[in-house]
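User
Class, as today's exercise, I want you to study this protein, comparing sequence with structure tokens, and judge whether sequence predicts the tokens.
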Amino acid sequence: MKRIPQLPFAEGTRALCSYTKLQPSTSRSLHTTIPKPATVASVTAPGPPPKAPVPSAEHDLRAVAGGTGGGTAKTKRFWKYVHVRQVEDQRPLRRPSKEILTLPHHKPHLASAIALEWDLLVSAQQALRHHLIPMTSLASRALDIADEDKAGGGAIRNGIVSTVMRYLDTDSLLCWAPEAEAEPPGYETHAGRTESLRSIQRRTAEPIIAYLSGRVWPGVEIVPVLDSESIMPRSLPQMTKDIIKGWVTGLPAFELAGLERAVLAGKGLLGAARLLVEWSSELAHLRDEATGEKFGVEEAAKAASLEVDWQIGMWGAVEDTHDVEREDVRRQLGSVILLVSGEE
């Protein structure tokens, strides 16, 4: 740049502006690569284009259950009234196997419960939700077992026996907590710890074990499977397992379906068997009516959730968790009583 002679301020500013305009503009490139346009390859695959994807039948059923599919059929009922009759009407209730849901005549309470839960449905899509029709699902399970027995099969029965027997060695009524150690001097005792957990477990389990080993499986040895110094349960005697397995295998269809539901709800076989014998019309010969004591839903639920209730008594319940589980266990055990009970 040339040296600019010193001029007065106003004239020097005008001269600087005019001189700057005469200078040629220069630019500096960041790279020297010559730009080239992209080359798009043509489609050379033979044959017609693929077809559009079609939703599967499973997707349609999930859509209907979720309220996003099925058209107008899902939003209304195709039945008006629900009745319990001894003859078939124009729209009989059917099982998943397409067979008509037919119950024994000596189970009117079960039939009324099934009719009630269908009468409470407001749309056809709700019939696809098993938690809204629990008695229908349970009765269908029992009828499937009965149909298979008539046909000479045994896949369902053997599967249930295998499932419930796995709960025997870890039955909650046979797993007792170790004896509580003495508290050190000055240790603050919790206000709710008035009785040890092991004492409560023994007081709850021993009457049930005595009843089963005295009236249902006479002479069977049922002992606790968890030592006070071990966390691994030991196995019951093989003879005890064989006798209990034979009894479970020979149960009628409705009793076997009820036992499965009770075992899964209470996580134990002994409490489920005690509840089954108390209410089954087919096992009435095993009951001792003279005592007048009843083993119902409340007693079975307390035996199944004894440890949880003990913790809740000490530390409190978690809202929307413990209260929901408490009612769900009683609901499932109550459905077992409706399934297996009947009129003489």
